[in-house]
Amino acid sequence: MDKKISSVFKSYVVDGLLLIALGIAMLVWPQEALKTLCYVTGAVFAVMGIIKIIAFLAKKSKNSSGMFIGLLQIAIGCVLIFASDFFISFFHYITAFILLYGAIMMFINAYNLRKVFGMMFMVSLIFAIVTLIFAIIIITNPPFFIILGGIALIIEGLAMVVVLRTI
Length: 167
Known about the structure:
single chain; mainly alpha; 7 helices
């Protein structure tokens, strides 16, 4: 397999392992996992914004989009850090969106695997269907989103690790 393709698949495996870890954390420590996710994501956004502004100032560019994007990233980071309860109130929609995206990608992978890897096609298709069902349940029944979201993230992570490791 081409080195570039191999590195892409390895990054998907790492992504899958991270989804599994996040899913387990959501099941074991639901509120703490969500707060920590807000803090970490907020810090990453803020740092990215600071870097963007420094790069803008270093270039002395007349294009102000770098400054605007940097300030926007810092603002998003601050909201995630200092108003995490606000973010947590609609986290189930974000989780459902991530799962819907993952399900779509799994359906595409299943379609691409249908002739080359026969059994992996079925495994990928089953994972895609289960992930899609969880996303729909999370959207329609928000109180269950932490439990179902955690389980769904584990399933999606397993799908990424299992299916992509065989390619």
